[in-house]
Amino acid sequence: MLTEENYRWDETTEIVIIGYGLSGAVAAITAHDLNARVILLEKQPAETHCTCSSIAMGVFLSLSDIKRATEYMTALNQVGSYPELPWTDAETVKAWITYTAQNKDWITRMGGNIKFLSNVAEFPHLPGADSLELWKYQGNGLRMMKFMYDHVAARNIDVRYQVSAMRLLTDNTGRVIGVKVADGRGNASREVNIRATRAVILCTGGFEESEAMKLQYLRVYPMYFAGGTGNTGDGIRMAQEVGADLWHMNCVSARLCAKFPDFPMGVFIDFSGGGWSQRSMKTEKEKAPAGFIIVDRYGRRYMTEELKPHTASYECGWFDSYKLEYPRVPSYHIFDRRRMEYGPLAQLSSGPTGPHLLYKWSRDNVAELRKGWIVKGETIAELAANLNMPLENLANTIDTWNRHCQASSDSEFARNSLELVPLDEPPFYAIRLFPGGSNTLGGPRRNGRAQVLNPFGESIPGLYAAGECGSVFGMLYPAGGGNLAECIAFGRIAAENAVREKA
Ligand SMILES: Cc1cc2nc3c(=O)[nH]c(=O)nc-3n(C[C@H](O)[C@H](O)[C@H](O)COP(=O)(O)OP(=O)(O)OC[C@H]3O[C@@H](n4cnc5c(N)ncnc54)[C@H](O)[C@@H]3O)c2cc1C
């Protein structure tokens, strides 16, 4: 561990915030408005800066009823565990709820352009689910972050792009008193020690882009994510070095997404057409325009394809201990001419094919067919051969699916009857899918004051965390908008408590 004797200070401020996504921006604005001097570090260059926050849909949660929201979060926290051992302690959940209930008003007061989206929680059958309000920043995450960047700029907050935090610096009592950074501005990178007289706040996101951490910590491998290009788990490792406990490391907010060998990120697929992977179909008018199924690598269906957008990836984690493989990794999105011709197969509202335009998906899907991202077969036999999949399985699966469609009833997985469109118009197509999607949730454990805790539950003086770096969510994610809600809530909590630290 680096301690005071080993280093000299190059400069001093009151609060150092590491990472310029939504949580970092909110923490910086809050600390500045409470009269603290702030340095905000971002390792990416300004010109190409892309975060989970800016690539997001821009949906965030607010809450209409604190008591009901507490019931919901309490129920959620016990799934896969039990009351004595919730995924997240009651005090930290309470802090999230108290501040999240203010999110809508906070953004509105700041002048943000938001619109009410829905009340649909990820698990509507759990008690209190109706207390969640999903709001959307108009123009998606990119516009939301532009709005935040403007606020930061208007305050003249000292933002340093291309400066990567490397290690936390402590005094000989273990208090975090600064950060060692690699300053990549100018011609050569140089190491600089920045003293933080009050606190350091970690806003470095998760570990979506660290293969080593994903292998060690997640329930299934490989997993791919559609954002977080700078999120290589740096904040988690830095916190570990100064004694942080970790939590939620095997938890994710994820579904199934495409990953192509010659493109670095996961891509969200618009499975049935209509712009979004999970459609809410209630009336005959909303019937899916095209059919699709998801099969494992042997051509077998294994779940209802009405994917839970932040949970479905857990379905891929089954490991075959005889064959020594994950039979559902990869899985395949199987569709026919109807879906191919319906419109872009990628989601255009977020992720690399969204407004950030890291990849411009073609309107007619033909460019991606030519690249081999979409696999084609004139017949089911040809598709199975091209996928290296047992023909008998795939043919049986499609045949059974078509019979379910004819009967208007999916007797295997009870899929919404409005999605029962047969696969009978050749050619047939497939896209390779992997577990993945939005983001990891694990990182340093924090309390309701956003203080990072050691394995004995004691706070590490001078160290705070916000956002996805040690998210408060455990196995189950409450609803679309949970993470951005957490960035706003815990960005504020961390900054409010950090400025109270004695200089
Ligand atoms: C495609 C997609 C859509 C999503 N849509 C939504 C949505 O609509 N609603 C929702 O609630 N959630 C959504 N999410 C999840 C949500 O966007 C993220 O969880 C959230 O934005 C994380 O914010 P953050 O501030 O914690 O981290 P990020 O926004 O990821 O920012 C972290 C920053 O830290 C920087 N950094 C990392 N290490 C260092 C270092 N050592 N030194 C300096 N800087 C460093 C990174 O470069 C990055 O800029 C989505 C995610 C994806 C991928």
Distance between the termini: 23 Å
| Backbone shape | globular
Beta strands, count: 20
Could you list the spans in which at least 5 consecutive residues all have pLDDT below 50?
A: none
Which oligomeric state applies? single chain
Summary, kept brief:
The protein has 503 residues and is an alpha+beta fold. The chain folds into two domains: 4-215 and 226-251 and 441-500, FAD/NAD(P)-binding domain (3-Layer(bba) Sandwich); 253-437, Flavocytochrome C3, Chain A, domain 1.
Lay out the secondary structure.
Blueprint: E1 11-18, H1 22-33, E2 38-41, H2 52-55, E3 59-63, H3 66-76, H4 90-100, H5 103-109, E4 114-118, E5 132-137, H6 140-154, E6 158-160, E7 163-170, E8 176-183, E9 190-202, H7 211-217, E10 224-225, H8 234-241, E11 246-247, E12 252-259, E13 266-267, E14 292-295, E15 331-336, H9 337-342, H10 366-371, E16 375-377, H11 380-387, H12 391-407, E17 428-440, E18 443-444, E19 451-453, E20 459-465, H13 482-500
Parallel strand pairs: 1-2, 1-9, 2-6, 9-20, 10-17
Antiparallel strand pairs: 3-5, 4-5, 7-8, 8-9, 11-18, 12-13, 12-17, 14-15, 15-17, 16-17, 19-20
Helix pairs in contact: 1-6, 1-13, 3-4, 4-13
